[in-house]
Design brief:
mainly alpha, globular
């Protein structure tokens, strides 16, 4: 791997760090309902940050998007909506499980589903069982599920070992059963983000053909993020708005009896941190070239590692037995191993594609030779 590819991997890791820490500023919000600070987070992360950055680095981003077929834009937006459900429940998942446990389960499922859905959508499910790359992909899914089971056992063990006061000392609304159900939904639907971004490759290709984008620019992927994240915003906005009305918390946004300035600041900071993971993903894609298929896997594995460290630092596992911590450590190790199965499976897939090119050329050459 050359220096540019190494830089690409480092950028993916930086994205994983941003994804792991984004929720921390929200812990400093005071006297606001969850739906209120999540609304400010969503506006910042899904609307303001992607549009402002795209306008700065790609001033003609509207022309880039306007040149794309409506069907391509629709699928980017649709996958963004799917992610919106996952992103919304991502926050609820962390409320119930904490940073360490919640992100480990969510990221593991996201990596598994994000790997399986593309061949399903493209009608190539048979390749998962008839090629080396497909076999490693299936192994990655199975290993990922095994890791999630191990972490689930650790969570249930924690549930039985600690008192309510101990469990809620680090995670105020800790509830393992609710959190696990939400984590499953969140992990599965969150894969929509990566599917939307990869679907946007067609937008970039058309823009390059029409010379609307500079092929040497590292910012080519940012117009796509605007479309995908806008789809996610719709879901988050509607849910938070409904809760604001239902819980009569609309006044939070102007309630001068709360620390308004810091609440807005911390909520917006969480949004910027969250967006940074895909900022680094897009930059990493540009640097890493043909190996960009490992982006989602490296991002998820990095998030799992960093979130686990943060969970330990926040004492989310304080007071649990050695057995519980052993299950947690084993589950995390298995999930990281699963991500590398996905990466190697994608690597083999690229090699298989490349191997077909000379084979086809060879057949053509022999057939095209004149008879003697």
């Amino acid at each position: 791997m050359d220096s540019a590819s190494s830089l690409g991997v480092l950028l993916y890791v930086c994205g994983g760090l941003a994804g792991a820490v984004f929720y921390l500023p929200l812990k400093s919000v005071r006297s606001w309902a969850w739906e209120s600070y999540w609304m400010i987070y969503a506006i910042t992360a899904l609307v303001l940050a992607p549009i402002v950055l795209a306008a700065v680095v790609t001033p003609n981003f509207l022309s880039v998007l306007g040149a794309a077929p409506a069907s391509v834009l629709f699928w980017c937006f649709f996958f963004g909506i799917a992610w919106g459900v996952g992103g919304l429940t991502w926050g609820i998942m962390i409320r119930y499980l904490g940073v360490g446990l919640g992100l480990a389960i969510g990221c593991g499922l996201c990596a598994a589903v994000g790997t399986l859905v593309p061949p399903l959508r493209e009608g190539q499910i048979h390749t998962l069982f008839t090629t080396n790359s497909g076999i490693f992909t299936i192994l990655g899914v199975l290993v990922s599920l095994l890791g999630i089971v191990a972490i689930g056992i650790a969570g249930m063990s924690k549930e039985n070992e600690l008192s309510e006061e101990q469990k809620k000392s680090a995670v105020t609304e800790y509830n393992f059963s609710k959190g696990l159900c939400v984590a499953i939904i969140s992990g599965v639907m969150s894969a929509g983000m990566f599917l939307g971004i990869r679907n946007g490759d067609q937008i970039i290709k058309l823009a390059l053909e029409q010379k609307l984008l500079d092929p040497t620019s590292p910012w080519k992927g940012f117009p796509v993020l605007v479309v995908v994240l806008l789809g996610g915003f719709i879901i988050n906005f509607l849910y938070c708005f409904i809760l604001n009305i239902k819980n009569r918390t609309v006044n939070d946004y102007a309630n001068d009896r709360t620390p308004l300035k810091t609440n807005y600041l911390f909520s917006a900071c969480a949004g910027i941190l969250w967006y940074l993971q895909f900022f680094f993903l897009a930059l990493g894609d540009d640097k890493i070239g043909d190996l960009r298929f490992i982006g989602a896997s490296v991002l998820m594995s990095s998030t799992i590692v960093f979130s686990s460290i943060i969970g330990i630092a926040l004492k989310e596992w304080h007071g649990t037995s050695g057995k519980t911590k052993s299950f947690l450590a084993a589950g995390l190790a298995i999930l990281i191993a699963a991500v590398f199965f996905f990466s190697y499976g994608n690597y083999l897939k690229e090699k298989e594609k490349q191997a077909q090119i000379p084979a086809t050329a060879s057949v053509c050459t022999s057939e095209c030779l004149p008879s003697v």
